[in-house]
Specification:
Helices cover 29% and strands 23% of the residues. It is α/β, with parallel strands linked by helices. The protein has two domains: 53 residues, no CATH class; 191 residues, 3-Layer(aba) Sandwich (Rossmann fold), CATH 3.40.50. Helix 2 packs parallel to helix 3.
Length: 252
Amino acid sequence: MLKFFGIDWRLAITNIKGLWWFLKDRSLFIKKMREEGDMPKITWRPILFDKTDKGGTMTGHYFHMDLLVSQLIFKNKPVRHIDVGSRVDGFVAHVAAFRPIEIFDIRPMESKVENIRFFQADLMVMDEKLKGCTDSISCLHAIEHFGLGRYNDPIDVNGHKKGLKNMIEMLQSGGKFYFATPIGASRVEFNAHRVFDVNYLWDIFKADFVLDSFSYVDDKGDLHKYVDFEDKQRQENYGCHYGCGIFEMRKK
């Protein structure tokens, strides 16, 4: 509730604790600047959480999902790749490093980046010109938002089903669909996202797709790569409350 109103008490405690070493470091730096430095001005801009933080993170949904799927696209070398709603400063940037990618998003965006073409579109509504337009499509950690209004999209309780139906129609026979979304007991956490039971998702996909691989990120943020999809753990969503299922599928 405090974070909802912009109050982060953990950050506040970290900053209060950090003041003593900040003032000590600043005093030492000013002393050394006078003795051996040549910068004429020192101002205040305290950043007090980096000293005790880790150097980065190599865990979690987005890290593993973006890296794995971009590697699959590099390996499979599609003629045309379209992405719907995935993270631009993660997955899209990974792919654009080695090939062109077209991105569709309901929100406006300006692209001046080589290898990235942007189209603003609501994928809950099908544009007939897009049917069968590509041999490769991705939608990573995006479908769970369709129809919840979070991104100024229209409220639609079946928005995820409509979006998936339209993406399936965009894909040519034999084309690849790379899809990732939160997995666990099916629920809507309005207006953040949906979470899907794995069997619920496969019931949507199995008529149109052959599954080439399934991986998932567990609740701890660790990747389990290319697991047995027929394993009995699937019935329990691989033990996930809020995990991330990563499907690599080929259209029949």
